[in-house]
Amino acid sequence: MIPCPTGLPVTSYLPAILAALATALISAAAFAAEPTTRPATATLRATRTPAAAVVADLAKQVGASLPTFPPDLLATSTLPPVTADLADVSFWDAAREIAKQTGLEPVQNPEDPYPRFQWGLGGGTFFKPPHAVAGPLLVVATDVHRSSTIDLGRAKHDEHRDLSVSLVAYAAPGVRLLGVAPEVRLLGAVDDLKQSLLPPDAPAVTPTVADGAGGESGALYMTHLSVALNCPENRGKRIASLKGRIAVRLQTASQRVEWEDAMGAKKDATRQAGAFPVTLKSLKKADIEYVLSLSARRDKRNVADWSNLQKSIYNGHMALYDAKGRLVAARATENGGEYNGNAIDARLRFVREPGVSDADAKEPYKLVWDAPTAAKDVTFDFELMDVPIP
Hints:
Layout: H1 10-29, E1 41-49, H2 51-62, H3 73-76, E2 82-90, H4 91-102, E3 104-106, E4 119-121, E5 131-134, E6 137-150, E7 159-171, E8 177-180, E9 185-191, E10 222-229, E11 238-259, E12 270-273, E13 276-286, E14 289-297, H5 303-314, E15 318-321, E16 327-329, E17 334-339, E18 343-351, E19 366-388
Antiparallel strand pairs: 1-2, 3-4, 5-6, 6-7, 7-10, 8-11, 9-11, 11-19, 12-13, 13-14, 14-18, 15-16, 15-19, 17-18
C-alpha cells in the first residue's frame, strides 16, 4: 500500500502514486509472461499521460524489464506528461518519442560493468548521433576515424588513406538474441560529393552469426561493430549515406526448464533442455553474488541446436526466484568456464539488480531457464545519413 499524506490535495501526491505503481509494474512485467522471441512492436496512445504510466505500459507490451537509473527515478522526478498516437512502431521509435517529450532516454550506469537497457536523464545525448532502426536493433554511429600514412620505404611515396566508422548495435529489450555477426556487410556508401566510399575489396557476402558470439554483455544488449570505407583524396565533408546489413540469430521457440531447491541441488539435478540433458552442479552464495555451475554434453547431437544452447547459457538467459516466486536475479551478468564443440562446463554469476529484482525477495530457491528449441538467422538493413567526416 502507498501511504497518502493527509491535508494535501489529491493532485499533489497522485504523480508519486503513479510512479510507484509504474516501478512495480516495470519490475514484474518481463517475467509475468513468456519471453519475446521475435522483434516486438509497440503502440503508444496517450493524452497528457504521466510518463511513469507510459513507461510501464511499454514494458508490458515488449515483455521486458525496463529499469531506471537511479532506481527511484520515476518516483522522485517530475517529468512532463506524454501525448502520442503511434501504432505498431518499433521499440526504439517508441523510446525515441518518450525521450523527446520527457527527457527519459537510455543511459548506462557507470557502476555496472554489464550493460543493459535503463531509462535515465541523459541530457538528450543518446539519440543525438546519426542512428537508424533495423528491426529489433538500433544502430548508432559513435565516431568516425580518418588517417593518412605515407610509406617512406618506397621510391614513390605512396599515401594510404583510411576511413572507418564505429557503430554500436543496441538490441531492443525482450528480444532473445543468441548472437550477432561480428562484421557488417556494406551495401552502399557515398559522400556529399556523390563519390563512392565503398572499398574495392568489400565482401559481397553477409558474415554469419556462427563466425562469433558478438556482444560485450551477457544479455547481448550492445554490440560494437565497425565498417572500413574508401577515402578519396578529394573527399567530401560528410557521409551522405551509409547502408549496411547486420546478421543476428533470434531465438524463435523455447522450453521452460526449472530447478527447484537450486541451492541444495543433488547430484541427480539433471533436466532435459530440448535434446540435451543439462546438469545443475551447484548454486552457491559468494558475498553479494550467486555462482551457478552447470554442465552439458553434446554426444553427437545436432550441432546447430548445440550452438544455440551454448549461446543461451553463455549469454546468461536464466533467472533466479525465491520460494515465493519473487524475482532475485533476472539474468546472469558474468560468465566463465569452458565452452567447446562437445562440452559445456559453465560458471555463471548472478547479482540482485536494484529496480529489477524484487526488494522483498529472499534467498534463491528456483532457477528458471527458457532454453532455446528453435532459432533463426536473420538480417536487418540500416541506413545512416549525414555522418561528418573529419
